[in-house]
Amino acid sequence: MAEIPVISSHILHGLPAFVRQEIGERALLRANRAAGFDLELTEGRNCFIPHAAVVGFINAAAREAGASNLGLLIAPMMNAANYGSFGRYVLGADTLGQSIQRSVTALCYHCTNDRMSVAIVGDEARYSYVFALAGHVGYDMVAGAAAGVLLSLFRAYLPSEWRPLRIELDINRPRQTSLFEDLFQCPVLFNAPAVTIVVERHHLSAVPRCTSWPIVTIEDVARDRPGGAPRDLLDVVMEQIRAQVLTGSVSIDRVARPLGSSVRTLQRELDRAGTDFRSLTNAARLQRATELLRHTDGSITRVSAEMGYSSPANFARAFQKATGRTPREFRSNM
Q1: Quick one: 233-332 is in which CATH superfamily?
Q2: Mean pLDDT of all residues in the chain?
Q3: N or C: which end of the chain has fewer CB within 10 A?
Q4: Taking the domains of the chain in order of start, what are their residue ranges?
Q5: More confident residue, 151 or 233
Q6: In the predicted model, what is the mean pLDDT of residues 135-152?
Q7: Quick one: average pLDDT of 55-80?
Q8: Residues 224-241: tens digit of each pLDDT
Q9: Whether 83 contacts 153, CB under 8 Å
Q10: Could you give the maximum distance between any two Cα atoms of the chain, in Å?
């Protein structure tokens, strides 16, 4: 199986609630199914999900809404400030130019296979981003939202009335280009090699509009995800299982689908790696159960339900088999 690009679930911050409010509960259900798990229940957690899950979520929501321009509708709410330690590090820079450079440097802790760069061409500065699935079916819905994320950096440093010189998007020219220009309030070019925000070079020296950001270092970002975003198949699968464990329901089908794999192919790949889905799921559940027992006062019944077990007794047996202690004994010996 080829390397599977993943990205922090922080990029979908606020979108599940937006879909529920503006489109409806049914649309959110279908969008979550396309993504592989309930994204709203992982809000605020730095889970890494396949790029295909992001595309699937947005496109499923768009189909339910009958809105082929959903990517543009959500662009204004896209904000790097919501991206955990990565966002705090990027927006904590002393100047806009440093902020952009920080985003380039720290990108490996936010996603895999995406590319980001900044280039100076005469009096212009070009800040560019390439999504790992750019050009794939359904990507058109993502490009406008990606531009919204890049713009959020500029808006953190520049006056509210500021507008880019132009925006370039790596999608085919749509029928209604005016929708893009009305939203971004600047010329928009299409069929570009990347999503690019073009500004006057002198803006790179702008200082932040808000100076209350906590000090965050690249080491802080690295500690949130040692080694960067997951690349190995086992790491990617475990990440999807952990995200599903948080929702209380784990399914190999919902892991395989956003990975672009069949269940049988995924099972073969895991077997080749010397493990199986059940073992990985049990390990993820045990890790989460241990965290809940150690750091919360929730009842054994509640912890059992959080883990998706059919009964507290089944949970207790599984926990004792794995650790040699019942959940109550584990808590009493902490």
Answers
A1: Homeodomain-like (1.10.10.60)
A2: 91
A3: C
A4: 71-224, 233-332
A5: 151
A6: 95
A7: 91
A8: 887 888 888 899 999 889
A9: no
A10: 69
Q: pTM of the full predicted structure? A: 0.84
pLDDT value for 225? 81
- Is residue 233 within 8 A of residue 1, CB to CB? The reply is yes
- Tokens at residue 191, please? 């069929």
Which residues on adjacent β-strands are paired with residue 117? 128
By CB atoms closer than 10 A (0-12, 13-18, 19+), residue 18 is: middle
For 273-300, letters b (16+ CB in 10 Å) and e give eeeebeebbbebbbebbbebbeeeeeeb
Query: pLDDT (tens digit, 9 = 90+) per residue, 300-309?
Result: 999 888 888 8
CB contact set of 256 (below 8 Å; sequence gap of 6+): 262, 263, 265, 266
| φ and ψ at residue 258, rounded to 5 degrees | -70, -10
Give dist(CA 159, CA 172) in Å, integer.
31
Residue 172 CB-density burial (10 A; 0-12 exposed, 13-18 middle, 19+ buried):
exposed
Per the listing, tokens 């952009």 go with 100
- CA-CA distance, 8 to 209, in Å (whole number)? 26
Determine the residue type at 173: R
pLDDT at site 228: 86
The average pLDDT across 121-129 equals 97
Question: SS in 3 state form for the chain?
Answer: CCCCCEEEHHHHCCHHHHHHHHCCHHHHHHHHHHHCCCHHHHCCCCCEEEHHHHHHHHHHHHHHHCCCCHHHHHHHHCCHHHCHHHHHHHHCCCCHHHHHHHHHHHHHHCECCCEEEEEEECCEEEEEEECCCCCCCCCHHHHHHHHHHHHHHHHCCCCCCCCCCEEECCCCCCCCHHHHHHHHCCCEECCCCCEEEEEEHHHHHCCCCCCCCCCCCHHHHHHHCCCCCCCCHHHHHHHHHHHHHHHCCCCHHHHHHHHCCCHHHHHHHHHHCCCCHHHHHHHHHHHHHHHHHHHCCCCHHHHHHHCCCCCHHHHHHHHHHHHCCCHHHHHHCC
